[in-house]
Amino acid sequence: MLVRQYRYPVDEALWELPAGRRDEGEPPEAAAQRELQEEIGHRADDLEQIAFFYTTPGFCDEAMHVFRATRLVAAAAKGDEDERLEVRAFPLRELEAMIARGEIREGKTLVALLLESRRSR
Fold it and tell me: Does the model's pTM come out above 0.85?
């Protein structure tokens, strides 16, 4: 499942994985569950970390934890009131085609989807 939201720095709406900042002292897994609930209205019965990387180590120390979330169950969405999100489920083949057409351009999403594509072969 991806979310599409407008990003002011690039002046366009982008398809992305659900994501967000970790709260102080919050474990990455808890943050992932919270973001799933806030952005897509689901929780994952299974979370598996598939990547950890620094987004731009020449510029900042931002670190990214990427999880595969499976066995999703509905949970009340608690998103920010000013967030305007479009949520949609895609089959992996369609996501691969979107990457090839340049329709997915956000870094963490590209990393995660390319890793998932490689895993599923």
Answer: yes
